[in-house]
Amino acid sequence: MHQFSSFLFLGGFLFFLSVLTGILPLGDPPMIIGQAIQNHGVSETGAANLVTAVVLGYRGIDTLGELSILFAAATAGGLVLATGKKKTQASADEDAGFIVKTAAELLFPLLVVAGLYIVIHGHLTPGGGFQGGVILAAAFFLPLLAKPSTTMNHNTMSLVEGFSGAAFIGIGLIGLFNHGAFLQPLLSKGVVGELFSAGTLPLLYLAVGLKVGAELAGLLANLNEEDDENV
Amino acid sequence: MFDIASILFAGATGLLVIGIGGMVLSEHLYRMLLALAIAEAGANLMLVLAGFKWSASAPIITVSVESIPAMVDPVPQAMVLTAIVIGVGVQALALTMIIRIRNAYGTLNMREVKLKMEQEFADMADLPIETRSVPARNDQS
Q1: pTM of the entire structure?
Q2: Are A215 and A74 a contacting pair, CB within 8 Å?
Q3: Which end of chain A has fewer CB atoms at under 10 Å, N or C?
Q4: What is the pLDDT of residue B141?
Q5: Is residue B45 part of a domain?
Q6: Does A28 sit within 8 Å of B53, measured CB to CB?
């Protein structure tokens, strides 16, 4: 009975989605807001990447909310997993093989450079703080995969996370006090397409990238350090 | 006729339906989480496709500010960027809870976890456990 009603629901849902996509103008969306952003986005924010202009320029406070949700998830994950007892040396998994260990050492600097590049060029090329932050987190998690007995320094991670979050809010507050609106664009917009352009957007994305990287790396390390003797 | 956009839309719809079907039909908590990830991918693909435009480029100025070519809608892309990040957070939190459940009850089957929880509550309250007939099902999960 349960399965029958589930399949009935799925069939109805499929029909609903098909009708919904059937009446959508495929490949020719109306683009009312999108057109306005394309016309004015570059001159108003100075960012060549219009997605960055939307994420940080037009809805920067939503991005702050997004960061707080990610922070809440990472903190809650750490709280749920915290048992008080640390994983002992004996219960840890054995080190990975020669290939994984060498590859982790080799890839670490490359991943850090690639992550920082993607973060810093977020207003010019595809990418940005979230995407680059994930690569940074992967870079700092790789050594843990190669040697599960080592632990990550959670205090440093919390410091980076806290300072970058505070930097984001601080830039917003400077805008509030000097220009009367939270996250008001500061600094000159510069020449579109250059590295030092788009005012404070690169700084904001740098803060986002460091925060996301530190949060995800800490979360992965928490999952890795989970005492798994019962499993 | 089938053009590329309708094929992609069919794929997005299919992913969404497969994901939600997995969540509704599965009894294993980890499989439900994987189904949620699939459904999320479908929803994100559908949102990006809603801003798709024929013969348009990515919304990034590459040549000059004066002559902006036709571009796809940047707003759905920014929304999907947000959705992916939130999805990662939700999945990570769900995974930590799944680990806790596995450690506490030794199983991830929803039905068994529910039975064990009811037993636990009844023990704590010193009540006799309700004997409800649980329909037996021959699932592998």
Answers
A1: 0.80
A2: yes
A3: N
A4: 45
A5: yes
A6: yes
